[in-house]
Write the structure tokens for this entry.
Amino acid sequence: MKAPTMMKALRKLAAGDRELVLADVPAPHARPGWVVLDVGYAGICGTDLHIVHDQFPSWPPVTLGHEFTGTIRELGDGVEGWAAGDRVVCEPHSLACATCHLCRRGLAHLCAQKRSPGWGIDGGFAEQVSVPAHLLHAVPEDVDDLAAGLAEPLAIVVTAFERMPVQPGSTVLVLGPGPIGILTALTATAAGAGRVVLVGRPSSAARLELAAKLGIEVWNSTRCDVAEAAYECTRGRGVDQVVETSGTAGAVAQGLGSLRRQGRMCVLGVSGEPQIPVPWALAMNRAVDVAFSLSSSWSSWDAALALLARGAADPRPLATVFALSDWEQAFAATRSREVVKALLRPTPPPPDPRNPQR
Ligand SMILES: [Zn+2]
Ligand SMILES: [Zn+2]
């Protein structure tokens, strides 16, 4: 038997560990129905920080990384419709059971059995990753690898708008200027909103500045009373829709305070707390609709790729790319919010002397 090819993978080795390890592991082989990808880019997200600190369930030893794009390297037996060299992204809903009431409703992304790459099975912070072929989506020719590397957060946003569609010409307030907030503002605009405002705190000044450069109207939440400003700019009516991406009690109150009667709020922000105070009487008085959105639906992926292909939402300005070997800097920059979105590049191209930026 020949020795397995080894590759680098960024792993959590055991529950209780607070450190990741860049380890040498055997490269995967494609089992029946699965494919092996050469990973192009893999995004670091807040969930990865939670996984490191055991604040999100994981099955170590496991390679992290649930947001990635890659090129098919090897096909397992029985895989049809795909070929080596195809550029793809992958829904992270591996090991969903296909038989529970949620899977049968077409909601495999909410299946209790699912074990995603990056926490349930080995993920994309590695040179190669093995995934089920039925979760792949083809990357359109007009979408480059970097944009495709950001398809997952965009699919998360599209899923939120499946829960709470944008009405043509409506006023949409987005709370929280992280990558999801900025992508939400871009998507709301692409979906036909009349006015979109992104709200953030001065601690996120760099992110607000970037959003403004992308043409998004931004409000600094310490410079104004957000609810008051929302009422003022809508001639006392209140905004039609709010998307909450920050997970903080203050933002939830601002959102409900900004809505018109029978306005709608969609919640994407994950709170670190099991309970947060909500201005319940105000929500009742406004007769608001609130929808919570979790994970990404099957239909959101091709929709996200279509938005990328049209250039309707271009996430590339959000990205800072690090070599896999520089993962510590990438995680530190994510934690400190120095960057909007860090992506790891497991197989960097040869260095270009004219451009030291990776
Ligand atoms: Zn994520
Ligand atoms: Zn299921």
Summary: The mean pLDDT is 95. The chain has two domains: 6-154+297-345, 165-292. The two ends are 38 Å apart (CA to CA).
